[in-house]
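Go through this:
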Amino acid sequence: MKTWSVESLCLTVAAIALVLASLVALIAVGDAHAVPRWLFSLTMALSGAALVVSLRIRALAMARNAAQRRYRHFIDTAHEGVWTLDGEARTTFANPRLAQMFGATPGTLLGCPMQDFLGDNPRRDLAEMTSADAAHVGCTHDLTYRRVDGSVGWAIVSGRPMLGDDGLAQGTLLMLTDITGRKAAELELAAVQIGLEVRIRMRTAELERSNAQLRIEVAERQMAEHALAESFRELRQLSSHLETIKEEERKRIAKGIHDELGQNLMALKIDVEMLHARAGQRHPLLKRKVGDVLDTIDLTIRSVRAIMNDLHPSTLELGLPAAAEWLVQQFEKRSGIATSLSVAEGDGPLPDSHRTEVIFRIIQECLLNILRHAQATRVEVGLDIGMEYLTITIVDNGVGMAPGDAAKAASFGLRGIRERVDVFGGQMVIDSRPGGGTTLAMMIPLESHATASLD
């Protein structure tokens, strides 16, 4: 049975009204009394109303057709794929964009099941997408779709039920936004990130190995430095012990010379003097020979005394300032080089006997080096006894040293001086340039501030 639309029904009623009006008008023209006036008027009114209604309905139909064309144009030109399915998930409509995404034409998609294109996705997502529940408000998923040629793409798929006049779901409306390019970029980025993470892990593992090796090397170096420091401490102790032994041996030899050789020489001198006195005038030749022997004995005694002073000057028993003054005087007397000494004694303690002997030998070695190498005409020696340190300064106006001369293997004098200074944990600085003389400064801790290694 044919279903009449509201528009068709209204137009049919209007046409019938117009026909009736025309018949009434013909009857009225033929016989004016055959048709009552009111019926004629009513017929004309109905005819006019029918005409107005038909015109209005025509205008509404034209507006509806225009809206449908605009809607169709919107659907056909949309950037999203529009897809409608019936209750069995078969295609009832597909716009050109959807057909383009699937690699087909809209006509070829009609009747195709959804599984042909979205079947690779989880069933739970598809079931949620095509739910027939009228209360379902829709859902959105990132799904893959398979084109007609078998290639795969990605789309954001939004689905919601299409409701009929009775409020029941009659199918599903799907909107697909193609994101294949974005997904490809995301996959490429994910691959880059995975590669980067692998490289980071490898680099981290490499750094951890390097750090472990570095820690081992640091530990080995610390052990080596500790062993070196221990060896250096033992060397300083040994050097200090050797200096003590050497000084004690000098004392012993000097004492032995004084007690034995010196006394024997004095006894011999007394005997020879008695022989010289008894020779008198009667044996002039013998007296002259005995006199020569006495002169030789005196020279020998002076030599023995000089040797004893060189081995262990008796002035050392008077303290460092007195011993340094005697040493400077002897150096000036023997070398002919003008030598001066300045002593600044503060409130600090004087060096002990061991330090006094070592410092005396340091000054002595410096003066000998100046005599051998400096070609100087003037030497200044300074002693500054402070609260914590003793400072020794020796300045000459000699030929000086070139850079690196102090580190040469043949510089045994300076090396010995530095070793003596190091024994007490002191410091030594050399300032020299060719033709500009040399300044040697040493700073040695006093007894109360000696290093623990010498305890």
Observations:
- The first strand starts at residue 81 and ends at 85.
- Residues 6-76 form one domain.
